[in-house]
Design brief:
34% helix, 11 strands, Rossmann fold, elongated, 6-stranded mixed beta sheet, 254 residues
């Protein structure tokens, strides 16, 4: 067991397949890992969507940045009784997101585009080739503007559509909060921490983040950032956590 580290909170849903590098870390260092999201996704209903004055069928192409966006797009289409035409084109940030479309459409019969790199910058290559299309960008009310900046820069005609909401996943009264390490993956997670625990005193609790915007949210909240990813040495949050525990173990053995 690593000195002073017994329990680690990973603010993500627990993997459904029972496999995760965090489980390997728990076994290797004798710590307990708990998956407990600080945020959750809620649906935007048909009335809320109509208030945005966005007509899905005015668009000839859809840009998907997450599987969640796909779920809520087709859920809303069904709720609004909209039949998505077979001519609709789909542009996905990653291959995994593109393959997920099979849940809702006959994949081989549709025009689906994605970059092999999984980078938003590279998604602009097929989008530029189809720049006469009118694009719809389904998203959460809490979102990054990096893709919209790319679209604006290329003068692509598109509309944003809020199809789901990111809200605080509140802790219940009496729910134990006795973690030695907290790992966050979005600024919304930090907001939820402060909402649930307005008198949160960090003391010896280590905080780790993935991505620069989440790291900034920690610092802006006046909290100490102990673990940061990605980096050349630690490309993932799990790798950064293991590196942190490894250093603690070495220091503890001296």
């Amino acid at each position: 067991m690593v000195a002073n580290i017994k329990k680690i909170l990973v603010s993500q849903p627990e993997p459904g397949n029972g496999k995760s590098p965090y489980y390997d870390i728990a076994d290797k260092y004798g710590v307990q890992v708990v998956f407990r999201p600080f945020i959750k996704v809620e649906s935007v209903n048909a009335k809320e969507f109509r208030a945005q004055r966005v007509n899905i069928l005015d668009h000839t192409a859809i840009i998907f940045t997450a599987r969640t966006a796909i779920d809520h797009f087709f859920r809303l289409a069904e709720e609004l009784r909209i039949q998505i035409p077979e001519t609709m084109k789909y542009f996905c940030v990653t291959e995994a997101i593109a393959v997920y479309l099979q849940k809702y459409i006959v994949y081989r019969k549709r025009k689906i585009f994605y970059p092999q790199s999984g980078k938003k910058e590279d998604l602009m290559i097929p989008i530029n080739k189809h720049n006469k299309e009118t694009f719809l960008l389904p998203m959460s009310d809490v979102h990054k503007e990096d893709l919209t900046h790319l679209l604006d820069g290329k003068k692509i005609k598109y509309h944003k559509a809020i199809m789901y909401k990111t809200v605080s996943n509140d802790f219940q009264e009496g729910e134990v909060f006795d973690y030695d390490v907290l790992l966050f993956f979005s600024p919304a997670g930090i907001s939820s921490l402060l909402k649930n625990f307005p008198k949160f005193n960090q003391n010896g609790t280590a905080i780790g983040t993935f991505g620069p915007t989440t790291a900034k949210a920690v610092r802006d909240a006046g909290l100490r950032l102990d673990i940061e990813a990605p980096s050349e040495e630690t490309p993932s949050m799990a790798a950064a956590l293991e590196n942190y525990l490894k250093k603690l173990s070495k220091n503890g053995s001296k």
